[in-house]
Amino acid sequence: MQPDKKTLRSFVRSQKAIHVPSQLAEASRSLCSRILSSSQWNMAGCVLLYHALPDEVDTSLLLQNALQQGKRVVLPVVVGEVLQLRLYDGRMVAGAFGISEPVGPLVTAYDTIDLAIVPGMAFDGHGNRLGRGKGFYDRLLPLLHCPKWGVCFSFQLVDAVPAENHDIPMDRVITP
Question: What is the span of the domain harbouring residue 112?
């Protein structure tokens, strides 16, 4: 029997709690290295990343590499019930939920994004994604026309994530 979303989120939170920060940091570095060695990453001129919460895969290595390679980096900003995308220009401010958010120009030309790196609470082998329950990415993902890569720690990859018709699966799920 497939667990419901609430049960699955609770399970993932319990798994995160048993891992010390240094384990999660090492797993984040390993996962980012896998992305950095991919041809899709290296060919992308504009990437959508996210500024990680303490319990998410840390994407700071991807951000640093993207800037060194001269890529445009777009980061999400919570505005009401939606995620706006802003160009990262080095300036950040504290935003909703205590997440650092960029203050660069608004990006609405979604077709200029070549690759999206997407966080989640859990993913399955079919690319189904379970978010935190607020629906922010559920509203953003249908607007993106680029490859969408879910990133998670190994214990966040589960047998099955409850998916509904409106859910957008990831094209690839990357673990350490």
Answer: 5-174
